[in-house]
Design a protein that fits this description.
CATH topology: Porin
Number of strands: 15
Strand content: over 45%
Distance between the termini: 43 Å
Helix content: under 10%
CATH superfamily: monomeric porin ompg
């Protein structure tokens, strides 16, 4: 049964390289905005470092797994920002290691600041056709349509983003992976699979309900040509500037309209002035719900000092 599910999953994912969302899902995107928008680079008042792990569709062999280490560094009194993100992904027989470098320039506008950023990236993309889990109706070694051994290549790319943040709201837009690199390892010369440009819109608002309670709705919209639009909505409640409870809903995932992709439960806690920990559990709503036990994601953030502007909605949660 596992081999059947694995084969179905692998087929979906391999087909998806040509026409679907190729970007990892992050249920903790509210703490991980730089992964989607290089314009967020340098926005925190202090240098911040993030480590994140995501295990998707627990119980399905070869399901996506992602790890991130990132650094978000403001310079020159926040006029500049430098960002570095290292991402490791595994999906079936595919392994992807990405290095993203961001440079952002901040412009004071009104009561907030506009960040304009560029991103350069390099991905190591590999598929191991010697994986023992891979099988075909004719046998992997005699099927000419299946490459042999470890196939890999390096893929340079670039992106851009803008991000405006004020005292209690933010708006952002970005476009990444703008070069359509060939990622097809077939034995023919046809251009079948390629990296696709990804476009993101994000926004959020912090409503102050009392001195100790804030309501923080946030949203993220993801678009790739010829793929379903993915919309994520988060409604969070921040308590005592220390605890965050949030419910997320991810609407994308299937071409035909349905109940959506997942509903996520998020909890975050400010452990100290420097450390923040967050965890999320996804309840699968798509057709894959029969074959997995949900998804789990956890993140630990370290910032080097106290944030200088306490009038701004807590930037470690918002």
């Amino acid at each position: 049964m596992k081999k059947i599910i694995y084969t179905i999953l692998l087929t979906i994912l391999c087909y998806g390289t040509s026409s679907a969302q190729q970007f990892p899902n992050y249920s903790l995107y509210i703490y991980n905005k730089m992964a989607y928008n290089p314009g967020y680079t340098g926005i925190p008042d202090a240098p911040c470092f993030l480590a994140l792990h995501r295990s998707q569709w627990i119980g399905i062999e070869g399901a996506p797994s992602t790890q991130i280490i990132s650094a978000n560094l403001p310079f020159l009194k926040k006029r500049l920002g430098i960002g570095l993100q290292l991402t490791n992904q595994s999906i079936g027989i595919t392994r992807i290691f990405s290095t993203d470098m961001n440079y952002a320039y901040h412009i004071p506008i009104g009561k907030g600041e506009l960040s304009v950023a560029l991103q350069g990236s390099l991905r190591y993309y590999a598929e191991n056709y010697n994986d023992t889990r891979l099988h075909a109706t004719q046998g992997v070694n005699i099927d000419n349509s299946i490459p042999v051994g470890l196939q890999n290549r390096y893929l340079p790319n670039f992106g851009t983003g803008i991000y405006y943040s004020a005292s209690n709201y933010y708006l952002g837009a970005s476009a990444v992976r703008l070069i359509q690199n060939d990622i097809d390892f077939g034995n023919n010369d046809e251009f079948i699979s390629s990296e696709k440009p990804h476009f993101f819109l994000m926004g959020g608002y912090s409503f102050i309900l009392s001195d100790q309670v804030k309501l923080q709705p946030q949203t993220l919209v993801k678009y790739v040509n010829n793929a379903p639009v993915d919309i994520e909505v988060s409604v969070g409640l921040e308590l005592l500037e220390k605890y965050m409870f949030a419910l997320n809903y991810r609407a994308g995932g299937e071409i035909k309209a349905g109940s959506g992709d997942s509903a996520d439960i998020v909890f975050g806690v400010q452990l100290s002035d420097r450390f923040m920990f967050a965890v999320a559990y996804d309840i699968t709503l798509s057709k894959l719900r029969k074959y997995n036990n949900g998804s789990v994601e956890a993140a630990l953030q370290y910032c080097t000092g106290k944030f200088s502007n306490r009038e701004v909605a807590n930037p470690r949660f918002f």
